[in-house]
UniProtKB/TrEMBL annotation:
GO function terms (MF aspect): magnesium ion binding; phosphatase activity
GO cellular component terms, semicolon-separated: cytosol
Signal peptide from the UniProt entry: none
Organism this protein belongs to: Oceanobacillus polygoni
Name of the protein in question: Cof subfamily protein (Haloacid dehalogenase superfamily)
């Protein structure tokens, strides 16, 4: 069986790397013959610092599906086409939008110097912060502040792109059309119903829709209708995750789950 994990808020918390306790649990999955895949909104560059280097060869989906890495190398990316990008750049200027825009590796950042997102941005200094016009491709855009974010969101929703909002942070997250975590899994050759998904946010919805089962960490109103079970986010979350992973690691449990699903 394949186990697919979102990172932030799912198996790593408060901007800290994935704990050794959870890493050992993930290694037990692999030792039992299961496959472990990471699927994050972060670009691959920012995934690496929160995973111990012994996990850097694992399959990774970054940028909400716009980047695929395997065996330590980026093997596939999906970028905005020139026409769409030009339309978005016009919005950036019109509404005085500050942003974090990612290419395959380097990025352009114009946001506030104290924005919380900087805590997760290239902590190992692996890339360069360069001007938007110098980025060779654009695979992901985060809009951080604006003169009128509501109007910006309305305009973005009329475009052929994928838009997520992060309400707590008041950030708009944009990916190219057709790009999401499920599309990333498909590019890895993964089929519907052959993986277990763990996530915590709206950008995990497509991943949950095609999983068996799908386990939500915490309580997200958008994601909840697509979750088959829920783990409460509290001080015991890592212990509870380890316990649930041990249970799911059993082949009998997975067969039982399949039988249960077929009867629904």
């Amino acid at each position: 069986m394949k186990f697919v994990f979102d990172l932030d808020g799912t198996i790593c918390f408060k901007g800290q790397p994935v704990s050794e306790k959870l890493l050992v649990s993930l290694e037990k999955l692999k030792a039992r013959g299961h496959e472990v895949i990471f699927a994050s909104a972060r670009p691959i560059r920012d995934l690496l610092p929160i995973l111990h280097k012994r996990f850097h060869q694992y399959a990774m989906i970054g940028g909400n599906g716009s980047m695929i890495a395997l065996n330590g190398k980026i093997i596939s990316t999906v970028s905005f086409n020139e026409e769409t990008l030009a339309e978005i750049v016009q919005l950036l200027k019109m509404f005085n939008i500050t942003y974090l825009i990612d290419s395959e590796w380097d990025y352009a950042y114009t946001g506030p110097a104290d924005h919380p997102i900087l805590n997760n941005l290239d902590p190992l200094k692996l890339a360069r912060n360069i001007g938007l016009h110098k980025l060779t491709t654009v695979i992901k855009i985060l809009m951080l502040t604006s003169d009128d974010m509501n109007e910006v969101l309305q305009r973005l929703n009329k475009m052929d792109i994928v838009v997520h909002t992060h309400g707590d942070e008041e950030i708009i997250d944009i990916s190219p059309q057709g790009v999401d975590k499920w599309s990333g899994l498909q590019r890895l050759g993964i089929k519907e119903g052959e993986y277990i998904a763990f996530g915590n946010d709206a950008n995990d919805i497509t991943m949950f829709q095609h999983a068996r089962p799908s386990i939500m960490i915490g309580d997200n109103a958008q994601l909840k209708p697509f979750a088959t079970e829920q783990l409460i986010l509290n001080e015991n979350i890592e212990t509870n995750l380890v316990t649930r992973l041990d249970e799911l690691c059993s082949m009998d449990t997975l067969k039982d789950w399949g039988t249960l699903q077929e009867t629904k």
